[in-house]
Amino acid sequence: MKRNSIAIDILPDTCIEIDWRSAYHQFDSLWMFHKVHHNDPCLNVSTGFRIHITELLITHLLKAIMIIVLGIDVLTVLANEVVTTLFIMLHHSNITFKGEKWFGCVFIVPYLHRTHHSIQRNEHDRNYGAILSIWDRIFGTLSELEPLEIGIKGNSPLDFVNLVRFNFTLSTPPTPRTVNLESMIAEAAYYRAEKRNFSPGQALNDWLEAKKKINQLE
Q: Which residue of 66, 88, 175, 205 sits 20 to 30 Å from the alpha carbon of 156, by its own alpha carbon?
């Protein structure tokens, strides 16, 4: 027998699906597909639909099982999908609006979901809700931090061909950084000179001592 109740009208925001979304972040076998959604460096409405086909198949299979087990009727499923899609478009949009903070006390809004797309792991493993922020408050995964950067760390392709290859890599190699030792030594020498109020006659000694300290760090 099919059922229709308020409790399951918000199917995507049930406790089960909150756990499922967090699983995409915790397990490499799932993150390898979900990271396609996160690698967009500019959060906007289109980001909400940037989902790997494998993730779509897995998610819809899970939903189908829940619909069958709970006996949810067609109209409820349709209404749920419409509301969820509208909220996904809203919280992925690059906007702010009056009363957003108050609205965010109950619902997932742009400023909350931007945290979920932060480049920092400790920030993007937050705010898993699609409609309600209440679940994240209950499970202690809510964060209201403003991310400094959106996307994922390392090399992140945006073209179709390389994105397909990117789906099947578990980790992203870091971008090589060139260290300028002369610049580091100069900064350290300046700091030593500043500590002694730039008294004359010690410039060479400051440089040699700074160079010695920097070489010890290698």
A: 88
d(CA 214, CA 142): 41
For residues 107 and 85, the answer to whether their CB atoms sit within 8 Å is no
Residue type, 207: W
Q: Are residues 150 and 78 in the same domain?
A: yes
Domain with 55 in it: 6-166
Are 158 and 199 part of one and the same domain? no
Q: Which residues make Cβ contacts (< 8 Å) with residue 115, sequence separation at least 6?
A: 123, 124, 126, 127, 143, 144, 145, 146, 147
| Alpha-carbon gap, residue 165 to 77, rounded angstroms | 34
- CA 88 to chain centroid, in Å, comes to 15
User: Structural domain tally of the chain?
Assistant: 2
3-state SS assignment for residue 88: helix
58 and 147: one domain? Answer: yes
Answer yes or no: pTM beyond 0.70: no
Same domain, 93 and 60: yes
Angle formed by the axes of helices 53-70 and 15-26, to 10°? 160
Q: Is residue 118 domain-shared with residue 162, that is, in the same domain?
A: yes
The upper half-sphere exposure of residue 159, i.e. CA atoms within 13 Å in the direction of its Cβ, equals 2
Whole-number pLDDT of residue 4:
47
172 domain-assigned: no
CA dist list (Å): 75 to 56, 80, 81, 86, 133: 21, 8, 10, 17, 24
Query: Has residue 186 been placed in a domain?
Result: yes
% of the chain beyond a pLDDT of 90: 19
